């Protein structure tokens, strides 16, 4: 029986268990599954080493002699056929049923037993790792074929270099020589441009008032000057004509000395 791999495939050992037991099992009486409780210790036919080997898309469970490495039996797990090649028993997590083949199309079922639970757990993990590996390889191959068929170069390489004899011409607008370009655009220039009449800027004079210029902000509430002005404004209507006459004469004090002198000079000339 030959189990040598093909030239295109490779072997990768996933698990090695030093000692396992192989049992001769009776035919399955029910459709529910096998039970290891039905196997007697007298049905043990072999013990030795187990190796789980990944051969590209195929996984092999090899039962070998630990001393000589001679192959006793092999179970082939093909993609998608794990359940038909390796079956767990109903009454234990350490025992399995393997479907072994002799390479000529003949097969038989044997019982496989591990001494420890963790060895049986590692056996299941190794088979699952191989299935994941096969799935990744299939997706990679499918994705590579799809990318090769549907790949479109939407960014072709373009050579932007100038060829021999080619030149580039750039038109630059002349800036105005005077600094009134911005003002002319806004219609505020004082000069004459063409036949248009110059526009003059008109500034309105400040408002004429007899009193002082007042601040738009109200004075603070504790300002003594503001208190005096407020009390004075409130007492204007209560005072008599003498007080009003006195305020009219006091208004002369706000004038400058020159204005007072001219005022008295004109009054003197009128009386004369």
TrEMBL record:
<dbReference type="InterPro" id="IPR012466">
    <property type="entry name" value="NECAP_PHear"/>
</dbReference>
<dbReference type="GO" id="GO:0030125">
    <property type="term" value="C:clathrin vesicle coat"/>
</dbReference>
<dbReference type="GO" id="GO:0006897">
    <property type="term" value="P:endocytosis"/>
</dbReference>
<protein>
    <submittedName>
        <fullName>Non-intrinsic ABC protein 4</fullName>
    </submittedName>
</protein>
<dbReference type="InterPro" id="IPR011993">
    <property type="entry name" value="PH-like_dom_sf"/>
</dbReference>
<dbReference type="Pfam" id="PF07933">
    <property type="entry name" value="DUF1681"/>
</dbReference>
<feature type="domain" description="NECAP PHear">
    <location>
        <begin position="10"/>
        <end position="173"/>
    </location>
</feature>
């Amino acid at each position: 029986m030959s189990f040598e791999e093909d030239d295109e495939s490779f072997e990768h050992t996933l698990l090695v268990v030093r000692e396992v037991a192989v049992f001769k099992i009776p035919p399955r009486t029910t459709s529910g599954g096998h039970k290891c409780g039905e196997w007697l210790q007298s049905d043990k036919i072999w013990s030795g080493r187990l190796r789980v080997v990944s051969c590209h898309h195929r996984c092999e469970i090899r039962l070998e002699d630990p001393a000589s490495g001679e192959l006793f039996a092999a179970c082939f797990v093909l993609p998608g056929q794990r359940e038909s090649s390796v079956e767990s028993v109903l009454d234990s997590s350490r025992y399995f049923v393997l479907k072994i083949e002799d390479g000529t199309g003949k097969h038989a079922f044997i019982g496989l037993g591990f001494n420890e639970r963790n060895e049986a757990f590692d056996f299941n993990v190794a088979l699952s790792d191989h299935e994941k590996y096969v799935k990744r390889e299939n997706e990679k191959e499918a994705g590579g074929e799809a990318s090769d068929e549907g790949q479109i170069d939407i960014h072709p390489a373009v050579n932007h270099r100038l060829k021999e004899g080619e030149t580039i011409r750039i038109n630059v607008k002349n800036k105005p020589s005077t600094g009134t370009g911005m003002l002319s655009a806004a219609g505020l220039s004082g000069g004459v441009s063409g036949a248009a009449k110059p526009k003059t800027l008109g500034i309105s004079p400040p408002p004429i008032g007899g009193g002082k210029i007042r601040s738009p902000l109200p004075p603070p509430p504790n300002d003594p000057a503001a208190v005096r002005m407020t009390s004075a404004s409130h007492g204007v209507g209560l005072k008599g004509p003498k007080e009003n006459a006195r305020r009219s004469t006091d208004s002369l004090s706000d004038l400058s000395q020159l204005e007072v002198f001219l005022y008295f000079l004109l009054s003197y000339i009128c009386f004369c």
